[in-house]
Write a structure and sequence with these properties.
With about 1250 residues, this protein is an alpha+beta fold. About 35% of the residues lie in helices and about 25% in strands. The strands form ten sheets. Strands 1, 4, 5, 6, 7, 8, 9, 10, 11 and 12 form a ten-stranded antiparallel sheet that branches. The longest helix is centred in the N-terminal third of the chain and has 17 residues. The radius of gyration is 38 Å and the shape is globular. The N and C termini lie far apart (about 110 Å).
């Protein structure tokens, strides 16, 4: 860079030397990083006098002024540093995006342009820096309407051009990165691929691309959650080694002559030359294939260069988008070239690890490359030394913004406000917070403080005052300030917009508006302002001038596809349909695979009477996006086909109401469903829509309470239209419901009224589910029904799977043009009456299940695609694993898994988001660690991520919990409501529930046992629903050992018990966070529920703390049951105080019973053993004793034994559950079995 540095030719004044002993550059850094900016400026300025410290002091002032522009000019200091430093390139690169190359000051901007011109033109400068300089110059020229200069500057970047592209392919949750879409094997013009909606797509060469040479897929595709491809054929005059350099927004793969050169799965937004690889070009044509993926990057683009080792474009290369013959690469070493600038500062830090300057500059380079893990590592170390530094916190805000860490952003914002309240960033934060609270007075106070720093004429200060004038509805002051601001900053867009609004809305002066905007657009490339100018022309009746503005914008930015569609709409409004069509066809030429453009063109063609052409365009739109229900409807109309819902049986509401029976026919019910129906249409492309109808008659006042509100069952992936929601009175009059989104409230509802609801649903599932349908429908429920019906109108080529959970209903099936109509109906069904401890509704109702999903393997693979990539360990995950699994610890895999489990359940709070209604994709584990909150799939994915980092084999498991019904998963669907983890350690599979902060490792609660589960393991094997009850789980057991002595009429009890697994968790959760007094109070209340006269005297816990080994919780309780021994004649009578003694009230049974009995609603353990040792009072003799009993059936084992030793008798009672679901036809037998237990548990003993 020598010639460039010498050419700067800038004279700087340096003061005479003085003593440097007290004022060194290190003091400047300490002051800077401790937010003492004035002292930092003083120390750095003083250090300029020392030749050995001058360069570092200049960098210090550069960084100081970058965030505190009121203190000085950052660029001026940096330019002087470049003049002084022989190897300035690493520093230029590091500070490229720090803001010093941008300025609101026109004079400084001109200096920056000259700096960039000299840098770009210096042949000895590094090629990457020269390309970056040309890029920055090109943008500056382009922004100022210097088009020819911009074109020349951009051309000197040396970017490879002339690409053919295809897409878009599925990439939800980055699932598409490693998939093959056959693009590598098929380069020819006739190659055809299947996109993410099942459409056939080919290679096409866009007619235009961005002028700045970044190839931007956002112009050509719906890029979100998509993988897209580009290919070009580079002709090399000889075989040669070159460097392939790439920058990207998104993930990236690059192949050269079919050899994979770059593979970066992390989605980054970086700059040119961020990835560098040495490659070999063959003589002749070389195929370069680029894959870019987006799921969270927010953008999708790349820039690729072929250079020599200095980063200068290789001469003599040409490229073209059309397919050319090429030779596959011969084997050669694929060598990655590391960033010289990263290495420069990494080496400096190795030599001086605590140097804050080099830490900052290296962090900036990492952030520029979007290497957030590496940047976080450097910044964490810097923050540990300077925890309150605003300069460091600003770097953290950039980091958190890149990683979408909103919690980190907010906490850092608050940290700046607390540690450095006078900093401009803090003052802006305070100002915004005041506005959010509508505290305009306080906002004005913060504006005053900013004005004290920057002056009253500062543009940002003026804009804040204008905003406050608007908030305070002070229009005269707003106008005065806006006019003044415009006079001070006539080239500032913000003031232009205020001036525009004043002239347009207040003064109604379109002539002034046109003059204002035209003047601004002379030197500024601004599409928003151009649109405002065009609109002003249209509003003034000068359509030709408005159109000319749009045509000029197209000439200026021919790739701007949105300009064509906007102009097409304008032509259509002017009824110039031929021009409107021309503009749309140009948009389609740029982006042929965006379905909305074809739909718009179809409507335009139809309005011109071009029916056949319109039909073709609607079909094209539906090929590209089968779920365009608007296109489906319009196409059917054009083809003369009837509305799809006309195929279903007509619905006569009034006739149904008129025929409804009186309330006396249903004396035990509160409401009568006259008709409930669901009508589903599944189109040939897989899209589906539904119509749901409910007509219910209110029979009594309880029915009013139960039916006064109704909610449409809309899922997260559905749109809806509420067609009808009304009360129909007995006289036929109607009262519309109050409707708020999906909620309906029926006012003025009376006995005898009917409510009528009808709504449509449109399914917009994503990814592999986009063309799939699944549903479940209750053919029986809590109200009686005259008619219940479910119908499906499915395309003839669509396989349909259906099954009832209880009782089959015969399908009525018929052809209906291009569809098949399926219908299931049931009439005169009684209500389902509640029975004590009956299973979940899904297990007792007759539920109809229907799906187009072929099997459970499809569901498993689908969710593995969506969720597995989220488990990739990020910085926070790696740090967390390192903290709990130090390398020095030699422990088993099971111990590793337990440590990870304990870490998550101790540090992450569970927050429930209904899995079924949406939120299907887990959060990034780093976000969960930062926010310390997550739902089931979030904490489970965090465990999988940490386990993988620890070298463990872990996977997700989808669960439909038992309380939702074990019969709910009879056909493939996504109707799971929970997510857990399976981890294989030491040869055994362990299932882990991570949503409880109290549940011990490898433990499952009773609600989860026997739940339906599906493995999500990525294996391509046959999957099936299994039921959760692993052998490796810890048994949910309770053991009690009690001694009882008799003190006159009182029982004096000393109990020691321990609970294992889930019972330990329940008790720990109830007591661990209470004070000693509150624990005693709560235990006393618990005892009182079993024994009214119980008095607690002592309570102690062991292992109550929610940390360490939580498997077992020990409790000791001493209490007295007063007056429990009753005297009858000469006998003393009492019964043993079994803790969980059987009682007649445990079950309320009547027969005949219709539904099974669920024992898990009474028992929350696998087994319970209680041993009571009874001390017989001296001189007393037991007259009446218990009779030992041991009974068993297929559901439960019960035993009671006793053993006498001197004056003590030991009784042992054991209950063991074997199955919890008792079929209805065996409930009566179980009742007789249970009565025997009740008798033994409650038998009275007598002594005298």
């Amino acid at each position: 860079m020598k010639s460039f540095l010498l050419s700067l030719g800038i004279f700087f004044l340096v003061l005479p030397c003085t003593s440097y002993a007290q004022t060194t550059v290190s003091k400047g850094w300490q002051a800077f990083l401790k937010n003492d900016r004035q002292s930092a400026k003083t120390e750095f300025t003083e250090a300029l006098k020392n030749p050995e410290q001058k360069k570092e002091a200049l960098l210090g002032l550069t960084l100081l002024y970058a965030n505190d522009t009121y203190l000085g000019n950052s660029f001026t200091c940096f330019k002087q540093f470049v003049q002084e430093e022989k190897n300035a390139a690493p520093y230029i690169f590091s500070l490229w995006f720090s803001g010093l190359l941008n300025s609101d000051d026109p004079a400084t901007n001109q200096e920056i342009i000259r700096f960039l011109q000299q840098l770009a033109s210096d042949p000895s400068s590094d090629g990457t820096l020269r390309a970056m300089a040309w890029s920055r110059l090109g943008k500056a020229y382009s922004d100022s309407k210097k088009r020819e200069e911009a074109i020349k500057a951009f051309s000197k970047i040396g970017a490879i051009e002339n690409w053919a592209i295809t897409g878009e392919f599925e990439n939800i949750s980055t699932c598409g990165f490693d998939k093959s879409y056959q693009t590598l094997k098929n380069a020819g013009p006739d190659a055809s691929f299947v996109n993410k909606f099942g459409a056939s797509v080919k290679w096409f060469a866009p007619p235009y691309q961005r002028r700045d040479k970044w190839f931007d897929f956002t112009y050509y595709f719906n890029f979100e959650n998509s993988v897209v491809f580009s290919q070009t054929f580079v002709n090399s005059p000889k075989k040669q080694e070159v460097e392939l350099r790439a920058g990207v927004s998104g993930s990236m793969k690059v192949w050269v002559n079919d050899k994979l050169i770059i593979s970066e799965s992390e989605e980054r937004n970086n700059d040119l030359d961020s990835y560098i690889q040495k490659i070999t070009l063959n003589e002749g044509y070389n195929r370069i294939l680029v894959q870019v993926g987006e799921s969270y990057a927010g953008r999708s683009n790349f820039l690729l260069r072929l250079t020599d080792q200095q980063g200068n474009p290789v001469a003599g290369l040409t490229s073209q988008s059309s397919s050319q013959a090429y030779s596959p690469a011969e084997p050669y070493k694929n060598e990655k070239v590391e960033s010289a600038y990263e290495k420069f500062f990494e080496d400096k830090l190795k030599a001086s690890p605590d140097d804050p300057l080099n830490q900052i500059l290296l962090a900036k380079i990492y952030l520029q490359a979007d290497k957030t893990f590496e940047a976080r590592h450097v910044l964490d170390k810097l923050k540990a030394s300077y925890p309150g530094s605003t300069a460091v916190n600003i770097l953290f805000m950039e980091l958190f913004s890149k990683t979408d860490n909103r919690t980190g952003l907010e906490s850092t914002r608050e940290a700046i406000k607390m540690a450095d309240p006078g900093h401009p960033w803090a003052l802006n934060f305070f100002y915004n917070s005041a506005l959010e609270k509508d505290d305009y007075k306080q906002a004005e106070e913060y504006t005053d403080k900013l004005e004290a720093l920057y002056g009253k004429d500062d543009g940002q200060v003026l804009l804040k005052r204008i905003n406050l004038a608007g908030k305070n509805k002070n229009q005269p002051e707003l106008v005065r300030l806006a006019e003044y601001g415009y006079s001070r900053y006539p080239q500032d867009k913000s003031f232009i917009e205020y001036k525009y609004l004043i002239e347009r809305d207040l003064r109604k002066n379109n002539k002034a508006v046109i003059s204002l905007l035209r003047e601004y657009l002379k030197d500024h490339d601004d599409y928003d302002i151009a649109k405002a100018l065009a609109k002003t022309y249209f509003d003034s009746g000068n359509a030709d001038a408005g159109i000319k503005v749009y045509l000029a914008e197209i000439e200026n930015d021919p790739v701007g596809v949105g300009i064509y569609t906007a102009l097409s709409n304008i032509y259509a409004q002017l009824q110039n349909y031929s021009k409107a069509e021309e503009m749309l066809r140009k948009a389609i030429a740029i982006a042929p695979y965006i379905p909305a453009y074809h739909t718009d063109l179809a409507r335009l063609l139809n309005s011109q009477g071009k029916k056949d052409a319109a039909i073709a365009e609607y079909k094209s739109a539906l090929d590209l996006y089968p779920n365009s229900y608007l296109a489906i409807r319009e196409l059917r109309k054009l083809e003369g086909k009837k509305d799809v819902f006309d195929y279903f049986k007509p619905y006569d509401v009034q006739a149904m109401i008129k025929a409804a029976p009186a309330a006396s026919s249903y004396p035990d019910d509160n409401a009568l469903v006259l008709n409930e129906s669901t009508q589903v249409v599944i189109y040939p492309g897989g899209g589906s829509e539904e119509r749901h109808t409910m007509l219910t008659k209110i029979l009594n006042s309880t029915g009013i309470e139960g039916w006064k509100e109704y909610a449409a069952g809309v899922k997260n992936w559905q749109n809806y239209i509420i067609e009808d929601a009304e009360v129909i009175k007995a006289n036929g009059s109607k009262v519309p419901a109050e409707v708020n989104q999906t909620q309906m409230v029926f006012t003025n509802l009376e006995v005898g009224d009917c409510i009528f609801v009808r709504y449509k649903l449109f399914n917009y599932s994503q990814g592999q589910l986009a063309n799939k349908f699944w549903d479940s429908f209750y053919f029986s429920h809590g109200a009686p029904s005259l008619r219940t019906e479910y119908s499906v109108l499915a395309a003839k080529n669509q396989p349909l799977y259906y099954k009832f959970s209880q009782q089959d209903i015969e399908v009525q099936k018929s052809d209906a043009d291009e569809f098949v109509l399926y219908s299931w109906a049931k009439e005169n069904q009684p209500s389902l009456k509640y029975e004590d401890k009956m299973p979940a509704m899904d297990d007792v109702a007759n539920v109809f299940n229907v799906t187009t999903i072929p099997d459970w393997s499809f569901i498993s693979n689908w969710y593995n695609d969506w969720a597995s990539a989220k488990a990739k360990p990020a910085y926070e995950v790696k740090e967390a694993v390192n903290s709990i699994l130090p390398a020095k610890d030699r422990i088993s895999d099971t111990e590793k898994a337990e440590r990870i489990y304990n870490y998550i359940t101790s540090n992450i709070t569970y927050s429930s988001v209904p899995f079924r209604q949406g939120g299907l994709i887990p959060q990034n584990p780093s976000a969960v660690l930062n926010t310390r909150i997550g739902d089931c799939k979030d904490v489970s994915t965090l465990f999988v991520s940490m386990a993988r980092e620890a070298g463990l084999n872990a996977q997700l498991v989808l669960v439909n919990t038992k309380d939702a019904g074990v019969k709910g998963m009879v056909l493939p669907s996504i109707n799971f409501n929970h997510c857990i983890v399976k981890v294989n350690t030491d040869g055994a599979d362990r299932y882990l529930e991570l949503t409880s902060n109290y549940l011990p490792f490898s433990t499952l609660s009773g609600n989860e046992l026997n739940s339906a589960i599906l493995d999500i393991d990525g294996k391509q094997d046959v999957k099936a629903i299994k039921y959760l009850d692993p052998q490796t789980r810890k048994a949910n057991n309770i053991e009690r050992k009690t001694t009882i002595s008799i003190d006159q009429q009182d029982l004096v009890i000393k109990e020691k018990n321990y609970r294992v697994a889930a019972p330990a968790a329940y008790l720990r959760e109830a007591y661990v966070n209470l004070s000693e007094n509150d624990r005693r109070k709560q235990m006393q209340e618990a005892l009182g529920k079993s024994f009214q006269s119980a008095e607690l005297s002592r309570l102690s816990f062991r292992n109550l703390a929610n940390s360490g080994a939580r498997d077992t919780l020990y409790t000791e309780i001493d209490y007295r049951i007063r007056d429990d021994v009753k005297k009858v004649g000469g006998l003393n009578i009492f019964s043993l105080p079994w803790t969980d003694k059987a009682a007649a009230g445990d079950f309320t049974l009547s027969f005949p019973r219709k539904f099974p009995l669920d024992l898990s609603q009474l028992y929350y353990f696998d087994s319970e053993t209680e041993t009571i040792t009874l001390q017989i009072p001296a001189g007393k003799k037991l007259i009446e004793n218990l009779t030992p009993m041991k009974i068993s059936n297929e559901f439960m084992d019960y035993s009671l034994s006793m053993k006498q030793n001197a004056n003590a008798i030991t009784y042992t009672r054991t209950v063991k559950l074997k199955q919890t679901n008792i079929p209805a036809d065996q409930v009566q037998a179980f009742q007789e079995f249970y009565k025997r237990i009740i008798t033994v548990d409650n038998k009275q003993l007598a002594f005298r």
